[in-house]
């Protein structure tokens, strides 16, 4: 296959072309998936008053739940940060208190009732539907809301005919698992030909679960060079270089690219639209499917570059202009606005550039609501969505009805009954009532709706942005070891005249994250006193420091860069020099403290000159590794 | 591999042997699965007051749910049926009203709070844990309860050292999908060698989702003969015959057997312990892993054989004896009782015979609570459970926290606080308080606990058993067409002396289901007037009758046996002669009615002598198949 054979030939007319046919990328298994045989009887389900003995469903009366309920936050609970920090005074970094109290006054009580009398399946939200067997694409009222949000507000893109479709998943890990099912034929060394080995392109540092998901399938990860702005398109080690010079004796030329473009995990980079355009063009040229995983898309930090410069005493960079940031064309559709200033201000994902239909975007409710939702969605061209529906049927069937019901109730609010109709006597009264009811519906509507959803995300961005600033300020303050050496003049009793030497040793270097939940630090171990010690190599020092930091009085636990290294080569070469620090998980009051303790711990470690201290730390950990209880935690999630 | 090579060599001593090593059955992919790299930092999680910057978890404050709540049934809501109908008068078939009203008085309100102060992870049930990233084996309090129920009450088996383990799944479909992941290497015709093609042994009729799940992986289904008592072990077409005479040119000798033994879907058979022992011995001999799917295990109908005989005017069979039914040895462990008469009365599953550790049992909350739970569990030997945990990590991670939290609260009840301790002044008062608190805890305990859970299942069995009896009585009443033909004597005006011929035509034949949710009817199409018509074959008649039944005034929809045929050979030969009727899904008052309407519809169809009526029915359906809306339902679940 020549590189250009899958490039779209644009039709001359103005009508949008259909998305590309990507069936040649399907796995053998997913090619063979067919809809369930029960389809044969669907056509009869709608017959009025039919007694349905065909489906093997338990009766709703026998569900032991009569309602599902919850106390929920109002969408205004948290204070946003500015979309354009240059335009007005940034909110103080300590002002993360909720706009309104988080007590009962600010919470709403939601109820999913057992039955709602409603013919429209998009409006019927009750236990009769949501706790019953459902549809593989997702619970209709929720799927419909998600689809509308994606198509009208999030990326509002229709770059190909019909625009993208949406299917619900059990979260982004499940979504990626289903991407493997759809796009990857399992490969085993010695059994399958080397030139059929599937490959996934990615950054050198990657969300580690992706590795443990894909590697057992025989996938090889192929790293593309990055710079401070993210994955590099051209030049040596860039995307084009790798694809153009692919050696088939090392496997099949990768047909998949995995990335997190908006708040990269672990590096915190937000990939610009300009860089995305370059990368997309190369993927289009070499027929690569882009799988973008965007759990942090709404966590973009416009103040990061400004606050970073201030913290470091550097010139304040040019501030973002409102116009530049509203990607009205060609990344977003005819409408120049999503309808929400917050959404307009965000860098869009690859979906906004996807003229070919080669982007598969994974979303999740894990970070916007809670990881326990196990709920997310995939956005892609409709033919791919249909295959994901077949995969859902054969694996998870559907996300939890408990989750779907409560999230639907959260965003859509209670059902609007029209029972009072019977009391309306004449046409005049009926129209008056219709007007009244419309007003009432509006007033009574207690679901978040899309505006509430966007407001909730703005509030979360505010909180996480303030956390990021707080942690980075503390890290900046502790990033340098200042050593003062006094050289006494032996012949002079007056210490006033002693020579004072101040040595400045930078301990780590990093960019403030532009998005996401992580600070990615490169530790400068070459300045450590034991750097050249014959018994200690770099990775040993890095591991020892990680353990050292968990000891009193520092008591901070950081993630090692080795965990996020896409290949053993990356891990060996410089993966060990990095630490990932998450500013999301700890209590808010601990964020600054943890940054301070980290800095203090690192400084103290740079005072360690005795190699036995290192040996002792590592031997203690080796002992602990054998302890019972560790294996109990072996399956702990959340990274 | 010779047949006997995997047979267990029993040690002479009394100590139970370890389960067999089944790693030779693992798929290449699942062999390669390794625990997540984040394990490297688990050991530090327990350090007191450590600030954890390693995990990428969102903070619980930012979950928009402050509680999860529900109105739940009390376990006594439904009336049980007798475990031994011969011992006392069976409950009237119409008495399915709840023991107590289903109104608020009989319901409890459960709450999962945001935080519970509790150090024991098995007792801490709050949103802080259940909505956070969790553990791949399942939510600890729920997993622990399920494990205890399985090990102490359900099968209470320890036939091999340590006994079976348990892992939670997102329901039985997810469970079977993970069995494919663990035991099946994907196979493609023309790519992989024929003698490596994976095979699954099963009954000729099978839950259809299993086919659509496994066939895309290249699996071939190999049917084993059945009789009225279920799968046949010996004789032509029996399990041993198939395995002993396996022809490798047709694929790899099957190493998996899939079955539903307790209320088979679709046939309604409960496989006896005696038959299970025969089949198990053969599986042991030929090293076959048994995957048993038991969604209906608690829906066993002891009255079925008696009521069937009564309904048909046959001799009442010997009634089950209490002693015979308490499988105390060797199927269950040292304890002769589960602690619950209901559980003791049930036929056990293959797990109760599993000396080798070759049984993988799939359970689900879909029929005991609701399909929308998407929650179930797998019971198997610990080494297999460990692999399922690795598969969970790479796919679904964990079941929904919303489901896990609410089910845990349902069965375990609210957290028992011990806050009042501070008010206790002296030792004497403390002991008095301790006694008091024990009493209070008991009184205040509003969770179902295991006794409530068993009581709930008994009530469900009662309801479904009464439904079954009601439908089968109606079906029996309508199973025969009685035609009266009067032959007048032309020479005699006195009609009193006309010859009356009564023709009795049986329309269908079936056994009353001994368990589950389905009646499996064999339609006797050979007695239909159009049976020998050159333009109509059997399958056409069967399809036409299915459509005919959906028309007024019959309005019943039945499942065709073609849907449940394990192979096209089965479907062609006689799959088309069967219908499956589910007595679970319709409203209770419709159950008898639907049986009546079915009988009436079939009788009326037997009056159809014009082939154009058949043609018209089928052409109408063909038209409807093109209609919009059908595709919308394409992914409908629940079979």
TrEMBL record, chains A, B:
Residues 199-432 form the Aminotransferase class I/classII large domain. InterPro entries: Aminotransferase_I/II_large, Class-I_PLP-dep_aminotransf, PyrdxlP-dep_Trfase, PyrdxlP-dep_Trfase_major. Residues 1-24, 74-105, 311-337 are annotated as: Disordered. It comes from the Eukaryota. SUPFAM superfamilies: PLP-dependent transferases (SSF53383). GO terms for biological process: alpha-amino acid metabolic process. Its cofactor is pyridoxal 5'-phosphate. Pfam families: Aminotran_1_2 (PF00155). Transmembrane segments: none annotated. GO terms for molecular function: pyridoxal phosphate binding; transaminase activity. Residues 89-105, 318-337 have a biased composition (Low complexity). Keywords: Aminotransferase, Pyridoxal phosphate, Transferase. Belongs to the class-I pyridoxal-phosphate-dependent aminotransferase family. PANTHER family: AMINOTRANSFERASE, AROMATIC AMINO ACID AMINOTRANSFERASE, HYPOTHETICAL (EUROFUNG). This is Pyridoxal phosphate-dependent transferase. It comes from Dichotomopilus funicola.
């Amino acid at each position: 296959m020549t590189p250009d054979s899958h490039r779209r030939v644009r039709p001359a007319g103005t009508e949008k072309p259909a998305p590309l046919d990507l069936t040649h990328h399907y796995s053998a298994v997913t090619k063979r998936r067919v809809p369930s045989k029960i389809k044969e009887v669907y056509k009869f389900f709608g017959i009025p008053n039919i007694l349905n003995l065909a489906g093997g469903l338990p009766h709703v009366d026998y569900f032991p739940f009569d309602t599902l309920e919850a106390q929920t936050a109002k969408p205004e609970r948290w204070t946003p940060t500015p979309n354009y920090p240059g335009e007005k005074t940034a909110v103080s970094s300590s002002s993360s208190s909720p706009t309104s109290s988080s007590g009962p006054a600010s919470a709403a009580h939601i109820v999913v009732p057992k039955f709602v009398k409603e013919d429209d399946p998009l409006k019927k939200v009750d236990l009769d539907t949501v706790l019953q067997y459902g549809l593989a694409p997702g619970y209709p009222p929720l799927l419909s809301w998600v689809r509308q949000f994606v198509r009208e507000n999030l990326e509002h893109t229709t770059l190909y005919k019909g625009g993208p479709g949406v299917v619900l998943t059990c979260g982004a890990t499940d979504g990626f698992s289903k991407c493997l099912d759809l796009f990857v034929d399992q490969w085993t060394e010695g059994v399958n030909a080397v030139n059929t080995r599937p490959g996934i392109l990615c950054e050198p540092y990657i969300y580690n679960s992706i590795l443990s998901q894909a590697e057992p399938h025989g996938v090889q990860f192929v790293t593309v060079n990055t710079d401070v702005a993210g994955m590099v398109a051209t030049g040596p080690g860039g995307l084009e270089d790798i694809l153009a010079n692919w050696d088939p004796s090392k496997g099949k030329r990768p047909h998949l690219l995995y990335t997190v473009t908006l708040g990269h995990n672990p590096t915190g980079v937000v990939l610009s639209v300009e860089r995305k355009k370059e990368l997309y063009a190369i993927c289009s040229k070499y027929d690569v499917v882009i799988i973008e995983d965007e759990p942090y898309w709404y966590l973009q930090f416009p103040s990061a570059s400004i606050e970073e410069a201030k913290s470091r005493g550097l010139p304040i960079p040019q501030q973002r202009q409102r116009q530049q940031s509203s990607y009205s064309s060609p990344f977003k559709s005819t409408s120049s606005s999503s309808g929400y200033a917050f959404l307009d201000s965000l860098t869009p994902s690859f979906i906004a550039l996807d003229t070919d239909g080669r982007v598969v975007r994974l979303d999740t409710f894990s970070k916007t609501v809670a990881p326990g939702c196990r709920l997310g969605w995939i956005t892609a061209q409709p033919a791919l969505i249909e295959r994901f529906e077949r995969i859902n049927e054969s694996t998870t069937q559907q996300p939890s009805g408990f989750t779907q019901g409560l999230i639907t109730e959260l965003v859509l609010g209670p059902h609007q009954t029209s029972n009072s109709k019977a009391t309306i006597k004449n046409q005049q009264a009926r129209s008056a009532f219709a007007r009244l009811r419309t007003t009432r519906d509006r007033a009574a509507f207690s679901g978040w709706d899309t505006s509430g959803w966007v407001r909730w995300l703005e509030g979360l961005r505010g909180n996480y942005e303030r956390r990021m600033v707080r942690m980075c300020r503390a890290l900046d303050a502790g990033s340098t070891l200042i050593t003062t050496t006094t050289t006494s003049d032996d012949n002079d009793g007056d210490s006033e005249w002693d020579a004072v030497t101040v040595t400045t040793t930078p301990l780590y270097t990093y960019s403030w994250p532009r998005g996401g939940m992580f600070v990615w630090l490169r530790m400068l171990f070459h300045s450590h006193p034991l750097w050249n010690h014959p018994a200690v190599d770099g990775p040993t020092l890095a591991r020892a420091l990680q353990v050292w930091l968990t000891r009193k009085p520092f008591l901070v636990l950081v993630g090692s860069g080795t965990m996020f290294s896409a290949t053993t080569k990356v891990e060996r070469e410089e993966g060990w020099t990095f630490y990932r620090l998450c500013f999301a998980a700890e209590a808010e009051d601990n964020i600054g403290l943890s940054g301070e303790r980290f800095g203090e711990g690192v400084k103290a470690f740079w005072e360690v000159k005795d190699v036995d201290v290192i040996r002792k730390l590592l031997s203690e950990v080796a002992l602990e590794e054998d302890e019972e209880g560790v294996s109990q935690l072996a399956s702990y999630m959340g990274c």
